[in-house]
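Record pair follows.
FIRST:
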Amino acid sequence: MGLILPEIGFQCTIFRARAGRCLMLRLSRGGAMQVDERFVVDSAESSALDKFFSVVVVGLAFALKEKSISVVEAERILFSPYMATQLARSRCSSGLVDLIERGCELEDVESLIPNQFPDVIDGIIKDSLSEIKKIEEILQDGQRLFAKKLCN
């Protein structure tokens, strides 16, 4: 008999301009999502959020390229119009918001012009890396800036 692992989701809530919090969620056996308190991203600096989400975009795009996740799963994680709107309202960079919006279009690209899907993914990866390079180095350590409860 195989091991049954809980389904994991990722929910990000952006609140107040220039602040945000991301929570890793897991699906309990009863079907309810529960916050996994070991992973919390909480930052008051939009540049730190830009860098964090740009790195997540690279990871999602690479996972899509390698067929490790589906487009639908990437949409559940980050590539949604809701997230693009929330990041824009939080004064995150227009480049990051554009990347999220391009991620929202991947399902259409995959179904309507599948031969262009790899090129679109490569473009998202390339542009995400360019966004990351534009953002200054994060000087606070990750435990204080991002994963407050990850190491506890």
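SECOND:
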Amino acid sequence: MKMNWKNIKLIFTKELIGTVRDKRTIIVMVIIPLIFYPLLFMGIGYFGKMANIKSEEAVSKIIISGAEFAPQLVKYLQDNKKIEVLSAIGDSQSNLQKGEVQAILIIPQDFEYKIKSGESGQLILKYDATEAKSSIAQKRINQIIEEYKSEIILQRISQLDLKEEFIHPLILHSENVATPEKMTGS
């Protein structure tokens, strides 16, 4: 059977013209992919970013169990504007699981004694890694504890009549020698 290319071209042209005349088809083929999808992806990105900013700006509610055993650390936490220290009401663990608080810091009875005697004090921080607010609270508390730890180290160094440089025997300065053109890949 011989194909007649003239007839095939004629049918193809008629179908193409019929498709272009149909407004719904043009909308589905052109308008939606060119306008709707980019707007959809920008909207998803925008709202995701706004939710993340909102979580970062929110105050983290935490419960400290054994606050009386580390008053200086508790003061560090209370002085932070992004952390609200709540009194333990009921079961702290269930409050954390319900999302009523974002973290629980447990301070053992011998914490202050160990710190003053030059030993390492242990803390337990409970949080819910599946919740963004709880993870943010964990990061904030870790940062404050690092600051507190640095202060303790400086106190211990001064008690031993050592300079701060004693614990930092090396300082490395890195210098980039690449030209700006090389950095941009030009």
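COMMENT: The CA atoms of residues 7 and 31 lie 32 Å apart.
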